[in-house]
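Q: Convert this sequence to structure tokens.
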Amino acid sequence: MIDWDDVRYFLAVARGGSVRAAAERLGVNHSTVLRHITQLDERLGVHMFEKLPSGYRLTAAGEEVLEFAEQMEASSRLLEARVLGRDQSVRGRLRVTLAPPLVSHLLMPDFADFARLHPDIEMDILSSGELANLTNREADVAIRVVYDRKTLPLNLHALKGPEVFGGVYMSRDRLAAWRDGAPDPVRWIVISKHGIPDWASEGEVRTTGVPFRITDAEAQIVAVRQGIGMTTLPCFVGDADPLLVRVPGTDLHAYGTLWLLTQGDTRKTKRVRLFTEFVSRRLAAHGPLLAGLSVSHD
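A:
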């Protein structure tokens, strides 16, 4: 059986006249194109191209295959259009993967608004510590903070959102007690696997006790509210909490950029398009909070 991927590469070389042109068109490397052309030759038992100094020219067999390859391409596009056309109703399952703090401290009210607008969409919010894999179709949409755009997989469609910043926080009561000279030690509260970032070591308040370690973000927030010490938090968490305050003398630090990610044909379905457009607008509105600009600090 002929592999449709081999046919796609064959068409790209036939239209571009060279392996290099095909590779650029498809966004792959030179060897990948050659591998698919070789596979097609072996499956059909003939050579599709003649290699010339000026590039690749179709052989007589290749000319015959070209007509059928173009028919396969047209049929594939027609099938895709029909399948996607059947999935344009605003109903069905929508799976969204993102980190737990983004759900608990930022986006759940927005998700609730979207659910009220589209009651026939069955929403699955996947907010465990492990983010679902879009390439393996474990989710339809991912909302991720990414420090370097180049680390995103090339096969994903990425819609850029606001920048995300973090700071150093402690409880208002604990800061007041420290200023009054309370003898209790101020401890660093850290998530065990993360430790204390280098950028968080400055500021007026110095830790005087051993670290206080926990295993998840929610416990981290509860610990700092209890006055155990200080910790690093995203601004959308720390600034929105009336019990917390930024530690004097500390600066904000860029965590990265929020990206809305979708994969392949999934992003063309109506429920995914509606959701990404809706959340993109809400994220833009959250921009000042995400950047640490939503409140003034003395």
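The first strand starts at residue 49 and ends at 52.
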